[in-house]
Amino acid sequence: MSDWDPSSWRAKTALQQPIYADSDSLQGVLQQLGDRPPLVTRWEIDRLKTQLALAANGDAFLLQGGDCSESFAACRADPIEKKLKVLLQMSLVLVYGLKKPIIRVGRIAGQYAKPRSSDTETRDGVTLPSYRGDCVNRSPFTPEDRLTRPQNLLAAYEHSAQTLNYLRALTEGGFADLKHPENWELDFVSLSPQSDEYHQMVRGIGDSLNFLDVLGGVTRAELSRVDFYTSHEALLLAYEEALTRQPSGEAEWYNLGTHFPWIGDRTRMIDGAHVEYFRGIKNPIAVKVGPSTTSDGLIELLDLLNPEREVGRMTLICRFGAERIAESLPLLIAAVQQSNHPVLWSVDPMHGNTMTTENGIKTRHFDQILSEVRESFAIHARHGTIVGGIHLELTGNNVTECIGGAGGLSSGDLSTAYESNVDPRLNYEQAMEIAFLIAKQARVAGPEL
Ligand code: PEP
Ligand code: CO
């Protein structure tokens, strides 16, 4: 691509970028980042793209999830283990229900930069710059914390590396041994109206795993290691540029800071800097698609980002909201069908369903999340297209950030354990329940749900 290089985005308008007072210090940091080793390899990235191509065709399913915004403080053993655990367990439930391989991708090891609707935040008459993720500044509401610091970019790289290092160790070794569903924390299942079916599914999964073991065709070692990939919103283009590399001897450029970067809903303008950056990297990429996406705009975007129409290259993460999906999604499906662009349709039932309680707490209702998932499967089935993935904000901890679910969290419970700095996440039970509901519906309705 002769008209592209990792810095060509600089000639375009880049929204949502922090302003740094000390540009020399920023340059110094970017230089250091550019010298650091990559976090992932092109072989892993290519393998993921091959798997996403299967999911686009309905032969695999993408499970992508994690925090809205990772924090440096949560770069500790326990939260990382719990996040991996919930995603692995969800993936087992989904394998069992959908009867397809599940591609596991975390919003992890780099999800440190957040787009904000306003540059500033005002509390009690005091106005400060908005918190833009630990990559940029800090969340407490003080002038000192809200300063943008170039050093945070290096810290983001380091925390990503530490997180990924531990994830790699966990997924290679005994932690990922999937043979012990009896260790799952499924007390909540008994509270659910579907309790019997869920327990039956857990027993079924256990039996299937034992069967594989007895059969001997699959060795214990194979069962105890799993593929796990990383993703984040590639928002801060200077950071992404520093981690964009040409693997030796190759003509192609890859973002080697993550396997699977995505463009957010606020930065997907066709003539903007983010789209310019993304069009030149070889990674599989995703774009968030929302109520403001037009059919023509979407096809223009696909033409630019995937001119060769490579299967596995493009994932569309749809986030309309339970109330708007029925009017918005069918038009986009029809346009994509007509254009013959190969895409993986994924459903993000989180970002269109955010609301604020009377007490000013940001939350989401489990019923609305579930309703958007159901609608998505139903609409795709009617159009002869396939839901190839789901994108969730979740954590393995017992937070109280989203309302509803079998545990019956109410708005009054939200303050008990609300830890997110940005958007509310599903807790362990709520996340598992989504997996159970999808699996259950698939087993009843067949693979197309
Ligand atoms: C997010 O995924 O956290 C996010 C900001 O989403 P969107 O770009 O869809 O608003
Ligand atoms: Co979010």
Automatic annotation (TrEMBL):
One family name in Pfam for this protein: DAHP_synth_2
A Gene Ontology BP annotation from the UniProt entry: amino acid biosynthetic process
EC number: 2.5.1.54
GO molecular function: 3-deoxy-7-phosphoheptulonate synthase activity
Transmembrane segments: none
Residues involved in phosphoenolpyruvate binding: 107, 288, 319
Cofactor needs: Mn(2+); Co(2+); Cd(2+)
Biological pathway: Metabolic intermediate biosynthesis; chorismate biosynthesis; chorismate from D-erythrose 4-phosphate and phosphoenolpyruvate: step 1/7
Keyword Transferase carried by entry: yes
Record carries keyword Protein biosynthesis: no
The reaction(s) this protein catalyses: D-erythrose 4-phosphate + phosphoenolpyruvate + H2O = 7-phospho-2-dehydro-3-deoxy-D-arabino-heptonate + phosphate
Residues binding Mn(2+): 68, 351, 393, 423
InterPro entries: Aldolase_TIM, DAHP_synth_2
NCBIfam families: DAHP_synth_II
Family: Belongs to the class-II DAHP synthase family.
Protein name per the record: Phospho-2-dehydro-3-deoxyheptonate aldolase
